Amino acid sequence: MAGHSKWANIQHRKGRQDEKRGKVWTRIIREIMVAARQGGGDVNANPRLRLAIDKAKAANMPADNIKRNVDKATGNLEGVVYEEIRYEGYGIGGAAIIVDTMTDNRVRTVAEVRHAFSKYGGNMGTEGSVAFQFKHCGQLIFAPGTNEDQVMELALEAGAEDVIADEDGAIEVLTAPADFEAVKNALQAAGLTPEVAEVTMRAENTIELTGDDAARMQKLLDMIEDLDDVQDVFHNAAL
How far is C-alpha 169 from the geometric centre of its chain's CA atoms? Predict the structure, then answer.
């Protein structure tokens, strides 16, 4: 299946994330704590915790930090209790935005998210207002030049739902969330390392934004992403 060019968008996003490394550990720690609280501290029986710990290791978080936060979440140490809240809304040009947060103060969080939307011309929506435009799935993206036939054969054999060759040569593998780890492990075992590997909300269609509209949308996304309680931001804008 052929797909639109998204490699430039991916590199752009990764670059902006690299600029915000200071927030990465904070977000990963919250993800570890919520995953452990909900599914227990045994990584073999808790896929979500396993993924969170993989992210922590990739971000060079010390093992002691990881263990301490798992212990806090499972009641072995005293810690803050976070709840997960999702907000939905519209950005510039009607672009759809999903904001996933983890917070210990829901009143503060909704006020900050609403302010960010309104400051740059967006609008908060109701629950479900844009989520239908996204698919909850596992996503692995390989750089242009990767062997497409090899990726396709291994991915589909391991249980992937689809393999998409983008216009710019990047290869995108989509999985059901439950099959993500098995597919990722099969590809990595063959020496194929993805540039992006995550369970995400993938936009079904994109809205192209250019010039001033793209600049305003980027400011809106940056302000939302910089909020302390925000974990992830998903959108369907091609900037």
Answer: 22
Rounded Cα distance between 55 and 33, Å, is 13
For 160-172, b/e burial (b = at least 16 CB within 10 A) is beebbbbeeebbb
Q: What is the Cα–Cα distance from 35 to 82, expressed in whole angstroms?
A: 11
- Strands 134-142 and 196-203, bridge-based pairing: antiparallel
Q: Which residues touch 193 (CB under 8 Å, ≥6 apart)?
A: none
Beta bridge partners of 2: 165
In order of their start, the domains of the chain are 15-73 (1.10.10.200)
- The pTM assigned to this predicted structure is 0.82
Cβ atoms of residues 173 and 10 within 8 Å: no
pLDDT tens-place string over residues 114-147: 999 999 999 999 999 999 999 999 999 999 999 9
The C-alpha atoms of residue 38 and residue 15 are separated, in whole angstroms, by 32
